[in-house]
């Protein structure tokens, strides 16, 4: 998919350009702020750019209704791509902010195989031998880094939408971005709530509550919202936006279900997170809900006692992994992933969207749900 590779390169360049511009502002305040800039670059330098890709293909699905449309053709002015590239970069900036805050909430020490933001700030404090607690400093500084990235994502959204001649399209795209921010924050809250309140919930509600977290913390934010924002920028009508919503939600659910499996069984060298990290963090996922439904009461009690213990050793992690696998929950989650992918791809069959975008989105559906990181 050459178009996707070109898009990712353009998003990288737009992020680098934005950070270079903001460097002069931050550096003019104090050289003590250098870590904010360095760590921003670090957290924005990697990743799979799925949100940027969904934003672009949402835009192309409407812009490219004419089959001769090729935004990367030499005859197409580069400036024509600038708005969607900038908005895609804004979504990646927002994602980086969410990861910084998420690692603080989850007390996660690593991100993509390296130290998470709060751990980087802790190390800075320890090496400089500053006063007070390095842990408190790390958390406070990382919260501010996440807030800074959130603010910058808002600036980038404005920069991408301001040049659009179709002001109604710009307002719709902005409204979708604002809705996404509210939904993902609500989903994050529900996630931490379920980790702590599940013992007081009726047994027959645990799975549906875990599914609700998936929808609002991940599915809408990771897939559906980027698609709709991109299509809205291109002036997509109600039917086109609804078709992309119908594609994006089940695919987003499948995407997160794969993440849940990787959080328990993933290879640390590939995922950049310790194997079984979700078990130590006590994530109340659909995978865990399905396991609890399938095991005897005695096994369920052991699972409940160990889940969320940050001190789980490798033996205990392997025991929990075996319990989950032998319960049949992994097979059920794999089946759910497959059903949601089929549901998503089927909606593309007759959608009034560009043929190229429909093909590429079907390809992306396979990519994001059959990954090992």
UniProtKB/TrEMBL annotation:
It comes from Luethyella okanaganae. It comes from the Bacteria. This is Polyprenyl synthetase family protein. Belongs to the FPP/GGPP synthase family. GO terms for molecular function: transferase activity. The keyword DNA damage does not apply. The lineage of its organism: Bacteria, Bacillati, Actinomycetota, Actinomycetes, Micrococcales. Its cofactor is Mg(2+). Pfam families: polyprenyl_synt. The keyword Magnesium applies. It is an enzyme of class 2 (transferase). Keywords: Magnesium, Metal-binding, Transferase. Signal peptide: none annotated. Its EC number is 2.5.1.-.
């Amino acid at each position: 998919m050459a178009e996707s590779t070109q898009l990712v390169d353009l998003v990288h360049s737009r992020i680098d350009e934005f950070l270079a511009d903001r460097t002069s502002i931050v550096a003019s305040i104090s050289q003590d702020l250098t870590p904010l800039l360095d760590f921003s670059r670090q957290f924005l330098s990697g990743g799979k750019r799925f949100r940027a890709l969904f934003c672009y293909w949402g835009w192309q699905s409407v812009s490219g209704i004419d089959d001769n449309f090729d935004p990367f053709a030499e005859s197409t002015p580069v400036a024509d791509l600038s708005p969607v590239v900038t908005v895609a970069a804004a979504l990646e900036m927002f994602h980086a902010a969410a990861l910084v805050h998420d690692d603080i909430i989850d007390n996660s020490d690593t991100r993509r195989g390296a130290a998470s933001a709060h751990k980087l700030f802790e190390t800075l404090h320890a090496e400089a031998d500053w006063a007070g607690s390095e842990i408190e400093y790390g958390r406070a500084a990382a919260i501010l880094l996440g807030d800074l990235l959130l603010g910058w994502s808002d600036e980038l959204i404005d920069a991408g939408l301001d040049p659009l001649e179709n002001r109604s399209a710009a307002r719709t795209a902005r409204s979708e971005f604002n809705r996404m921010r509210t939904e993902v924050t609500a989903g994050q809250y529900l996630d931490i709530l379920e980790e702590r309140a599940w013992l007081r919930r009726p047994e027959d509600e645990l799975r549906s509550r875990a599914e609700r977290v998936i929808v609002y913390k991940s599915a809408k934010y990771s897939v559906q919202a980027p698609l709709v924002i991109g299509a809205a920028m291109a002036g997509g009508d109600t039917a086109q936006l609804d078709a992309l919503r119908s594609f994006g939600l089940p695919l987003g659910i499948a995407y997160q279900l794969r993440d849940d499996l990787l959080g328990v069984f993933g290879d640390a060298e590939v995922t950049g997170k310790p194997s079984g990290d979700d078990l130590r963090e006590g994530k109340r996922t659909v995978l865990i809900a399905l396991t609890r439904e399938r095991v005897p009461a005695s096994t369920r009690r052991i699972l409940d006692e160990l889940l969320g213990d940050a001190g789980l050793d490798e033996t205990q992690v392997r025991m929990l992994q075996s319990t989950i696998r032998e319960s049949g929950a992994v097979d059920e989650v794999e089946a759910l992933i497959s059903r949601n992918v089929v549901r998503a791809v089927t909606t593309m069959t007759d959608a009034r969207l560009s043929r190229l975008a429909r093909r590429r989105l079907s390809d992306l559906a396979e990519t994001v749900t059959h990954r090992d990181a």
